Amino acid sequence: MDGPTEKLILAVQSDLKTLSLETKKRHGWVKDACEEAIAKIRGAGTAPSALPYVTQEALYPVLQGCDTRDPKIVKV
């Protein structure tokens, strides 16, 4: 995998981890979705052809976080 793609994947994983930590008490479903997405991203790291599929999986917890309308979470 090339440098920019690897940096992007690491940044997305970091953002999902932060979102997971922010939502663990009040919004468990978002935390669970974040953890699932992180696991799928790690798995796709060895198969770059799976990245388009993983992109949808990574955006789902972000959209769930926005649906909470909690300003602290939406800001993450």
3D structure, described in words:
The protein is an all-alpha fold and 76 residues long. The protein has one domain (3-75). The protein contains 4 helices and no strands. It has helices spanning 3-23, 28-44, 51-67, 71-75. Helix 1 (3-23) packs antiparallel against helix 2 (28-44) and helix 1 packs parallel to helix 3. It starts with a helix and ends with a helix. The mean pLDDT is 84.
Summarize the structure in short.
The chain has helices spanning 3-23, 28-44, 51-67, 71-75. With 76 residues, it is an all-alpha fold.
Q: How is the topology of this model organized?
A:
Blueprint: H1 3-23, H2 28-44, H3 51-67, H4 71-75
Helix pairs in contact: 1-2, 1-3, 2-3
Q: Report the uncertain regions.
A: none
- Tally of individual helices: 4
Shape verdict: elongated
Query: Can you count the beta strands?
Result: 0
Features:
single chain; 76 residues; mainly alpha; 79% helix
